Amino acid sequence: MHPAKPRGGFTLIEMVMVVALIGLLLSIAVPRYFHTLDQAKAQVQQQNLATLRDAIDKYFGDRGRYPDTLDDLVKQHYLRSIPVDPLTGKPDWTVRPPEDTQKGMVYDVASAHEEPKPQ
Fold first, then answer.
1. Pairing with 56, which of 38, 62, 109, 111 sits 20 to 30 Å away (CA)?
2. What are phi and psi of 96, to 5 degrees?
3. Rounded to whole angstroms, how far apart are CA atoms 65 and 59?
4. Alpha-carbon gap, residue 73 to 54, rounded angstroms
5. What is the pTM of this model?
6. DSSP annotation of 90
7. How would DSSP label each residue in 54-84?
8. Rounded to whole angstroms, how far apart are CA atoms 67 and 25?
9. What pLDDT was estimated at residue 1?
């Protein structure tokens, strides 16, 4: 009779431990990934809002009134296009008119994803 040769491979316990370790690492990494993704979207949103507000201010400075719509900023070449809100995935923004609506209709903008804060 030949002596039994040791077989190479993993035991069931070793496989379970590896799967458990991978699960533990994923439980730490995945929430951090989504948190970082949310932070990046918030930063892009803030930059887009700053771009829109800057274009509105320039429009007012040049014309003495606010635009009637955000599309006016594109038509008059203050923006190439209306930026996309990263939280909604669409170029939809909530606009706030000035107190005197004779001076236009777009005084300020906010994300359509959130309720605008009263001022």
1. 38
2. -120, 125
3. 7
4. 11
5. 0.74
6. B
7. HHHHHHHHHHSS--SSTHHHHHTTS-SSPPP
8. 51
9. 62
Placement of tokens 């190479």 in the chain: 8
Distances (CA, A) of 30 to 36, 37, 64, 87, 97: 10, 11, 50, 19, 41
Helix (H) or strand (E) holding 51: helix 12-63
Which of the four pLDDT bands, split at 50, 70 and 90, describes residue 116?
A: very low
Q: How far apart are CA 73 and CA 81, in angstroms?
A: 8
Residue 43 has pLDDT above 50, yes or no: yes
Question: pLDDT tens, 61-108?
Answer: 999 999 999 999 999 999 999 999 998 899 989 999 999 989 999 999
Tell me the per-residue pLDDT of 7-41, one tens digit each, with 9 for 90 and over. 677 799 999 999 999 999 999 999 999 999 999 99
> What sign has the CA pseudo-torsion 44, 50, 53, 58?
negative
Question: Tokens at residue 70, please?
Answer: 């955000």
